[in-house]
Amino acid sequence: MFKLIKGYMVLSIVTAMMLVFAGCGAAQNTNTNESTNNPAESTIAPSEQPAETVELTISAAASMTDALTEIQKTYEANNQNIKLSFNFGASGALQQQIEQGAPADLFLSAAVKNMTALVDKQLIDANQQVNLLNNELVVVVPADGKTPIENVTDLTKTEVKTVAIGIPESVPAGNYAKEALTNAKLWDALQAKSVQAKDVRQVLQYVETGNADAGFVYKTDALTTDKVKVAFTVDSAAYKTIQYPIGIVKATKHSQEAEDFYTYLQSQEALDVFVKYGFTVPN
Asked: What is the homologous superfamily of the domain 54-134+243-276 according to CATH?
């Protein structure tokens, strides 16, 4: 009888152990199936890396400040991986900076001679530069100015104490003004009352603040403020045609991005902005 009971107990223990193992196996299979049926729960999706921001440095004539600032907003909004950084100044000074190795991806000049100098020194490829815009030279006076000034000869009047002009050697607007005054045989006569400025925007500022009775600026500059008025437009036959060439600097580290912006500046969308600010497009 004892042996029968003992045998029965052993059989019960074995049966219980088999049930436990079977349960573990079922749980493992259930977990395995859940893992197989829900791969997203066991797989971490790779994070998308944002495109690296590329900063383009553009050395540009000061007279292009307002137009390029508006273009910048549109271009960066449509190309979110591009940041445009502008270095505005006199074209001659910008040319020298590029010659001395200052970082620049594009150069926008207010005179052909500054672009030509960089092409000649092989700092800009002749095939990656083009004349983009034209401008006009005007003489401005303070908005509340009382002295009647209608032509270059009127600048010699005793009531006109100071005439502002960009440094001819580095400021294209100043060079154009010197050429016009030289052709009118007035350059030497006006030396005693002339004050020279580092760029065309400083000329404008001198007239705005009343520190100059008149100043030679571009038409585009005159349109940016109501603190001055145009006294007269300088005879275009008296100076070389004002051309604005743009070019890609060979030393750029972002050649594709620089070329894209260079191309965009020649698009109708960009040209319309330049025209809005008083520039004209060459035929």
From this structure: Periplasmic binding protein-like II (3.40.190.10)
Picking from 146, 118, 158, the residue whose alpha carbon sits closest to that of residue 229 is 146
| Residue indicated by tokens 């600010």 | 277
**pLDDT-derived band at 35, boundaries 50, 70, 90:** very low
Gap between the Cα atoms of 120 and 115, Å rounded: 9
Q: Residue 167: phi, psi to the nearest 5?
A: -55, 115
Structure confidence by residue, pLDDT tens digits, 237-279: 999 999 999 999 999 999 999 999 999 999 999 999 999 999 9
The single-letter DSSP state of residue 238 is G
Average pLDDT over residues 57-70: 97
CB distance 122 to 250 below 8 Å: yes
Pairing relationship of beta strands 106-108 and 54-61 according to DSSP bridges:
parallel
* Distance, CA of 218 to CA of 177 (rounded, Å): 10
Specify the CATH architecture of the domain 137-233.
3-Layer(aba) Sandwich (3.40)
Element (DSSP H or E) covering residue 133: strand 124-135
Same fold, 54-134+243-276 and 137-233: yes
Give the model's pLDDT for residue 230: 97
Residue 27 has pLDDT above 60, yes or no: no
Q: What per-residue confidence (pLDDT) applies to 283?
A: 85
Domain ranges of the chain: 54-134+243-276, 137-233
